[in-house]
Amino acid sequence: MPIASRTVLAVTLGVAIGVAVGLGGFTFAYAKGSSYLRDDPAACANCHIMNEQYDGWRKSSHHAVATCNDCHTPAGFLPKYYTKASNGFWHSFYFTTGTFPDPIRLRPGNRVVTENACRKCHASIVEAIETPPTGHERVAPGEQLQCLTCHNSVGHPEGSGNPELIRKEIAR
């Protein structure tokens, strides 16, 4: 490869990397990216789309005992920050393209994370509900009740967890 071609390739590659790093850095700073590395629920309201959910959480009974991350990220450092990064990317994508669902809904993978969080904090209640008295079946063998089917607005504004949408998503 001639020296001139290598120089053009190196400059083009350098400019492309510089633009990507510059845009990424600007976006991270503009979107208050470092706030998402902490557990402060106010970070979830950086995007005005989430103001209603944030305000609902502040007025809910869960306000005193749980943050957004307690319900919406799995336990463990890597799973937590992988989920936060994935959700952050997709939230940004949907917001930027204007294709976010209204009302905002949990994606299926996030629904599992939230369901597991409910079950972890409320284990004794879940066990009492799912353990039938002798001779009674409340849940088919091998199946679990889904907390979010009935408790779809816990921690958020009443009605924000549209039960009909939730039933359709669970059925998928």
What keywords describe this structure?
about 170 residues, mainly alpha, Multiheme cytochrome fold, 2 domains, 8 helices, about 55% helix
Brief sketch in words of this structure:
It is built from 8 helices and no strands. It is an all-alpha fold.
Word description of this protein:
The protein starts with a helix and ends with a helix. It has 2 domains: 1-31; 39-171, Multiheme cytochrome fold (Orthogonal Bundle). It contains 8 helices and no strands. It has 172 residues and is mainly α. The chain is elongated.
Q: Distance between termini?
A: 54 Å
Extract low-pLDDT stretches: none
Main beta-sheet annotation: none
What number of domains?
A: 2
CATH class of the largest domain: Mainly Alpha
What is the CATH third-level topology name of the largest domain? Answer: Multiheme cytochrome fold
Overall 3D geometry? elongated
The number of helices is 8
Task: Determine the fraction of residues in helical runs and give it as a percent range.
Answer: 55-70%
Q: Give the full name of the CATH homologous superfamily of the largest domain.
A: Di-heme elbow motif domain
The chain-level structural class is mainly alpha
